[in-house]
Structure formats: structure tokens, C-alpha cells
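FORM 7B: Structural annotation worksheet

SECTION A. Query
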Amino acid sequence: QVQLVESGGGLVQPGGSLRLSCAASGSILSFNAMGWYRQAPGKQRDLVAVITRGGTTNYADSVKGRFTISRDVAKNTVLLQMNSLKPEDTAVYFCNARTMIVVGTRDYWGQGTQVTVSS
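SECTION B. Predicted structure
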């Protein structure tokens, strides 16, 4: 059973930084991609950033230039460095791992970590 455990959320002032961490129970290279999603109250869960098995990264337009996704393969960990945070970044952030299966994809999710950007 795949387990993803997020950490690093919290309260930060606008313009501040946070680093989220997602620890996987197995090798992160066993997944086709890993990423971060976020969900604000009353809104859908949206992709923030993704890193593929090959190392390619992709970001939502709203976070480009401010957030950086990276990984530590030896520690089976995916990181999200968030800089220049804005109030609109406030959300629950979820770690995601995706694998390809015969009929499509299979997603695994962490429990989420709250990020609040407020003065």
C-alpha cells in the first residue's frame, strides 16, 4: 500500500516562504509522476506542480516563477519550495503520486497540509 505523508505547512505572512515535503513509502521512481495539488474552501482541487519520472517539471501559471518542485530520490521525498507567497495561495496542499495502468492511471494521495498566507 502506497503511503504519502506531507509536512511543512503552516501560517506565513504575504511575501514569505514555506517548503512542503512529501515522503513516500517506497521509491518515488516507481511512479510515472509526482506532484502537488491544492484545494481552497469551496473550490476544486487544482494542480500546482508536477515532476515526472524523467525529471521534467510543470507548473500552474499562477505559481510559475515562485514555486519550485524538486525531489530527493535517495530519501523518497518530493519537495515544493514556495516563495513570494500570496493570500490566494491559501489552501490545503496535497501530495500526489500517479502510475499508469492498463485502463488509465491510478492516483495516490496524502492527507494534505494546510498553508495559510495572511498578515
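SECTION C. Observations
The chain has no helices and eleven strands. Residues 42 and 84 are 24 Å apart (CA to CA).

SECTION D. Sign-off
Analyst initials: ____
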